Amino acid sequence: MILVIKNAIPTRAEPDVADRIVRRSLAKREGDYADEVRRLLRAALDVMRRCGTATRPRVADIVAAAGLSNEAFYRHFRSKDALVSAILEDGAERLCSYLAHQMEKEATPEGRVRRWVEGVLAQADEEIAATTLAVLWNGSSVGGGVAAGRHFASTPLASLLHEPFAVLGSADPEFDAVLAAHATLGKLSDSLWQGTQPMPSEVAAVVAFCLAAVRR
Question: Do residues 41 and 64 share a domain?
Answer without folding.
Answer: yes
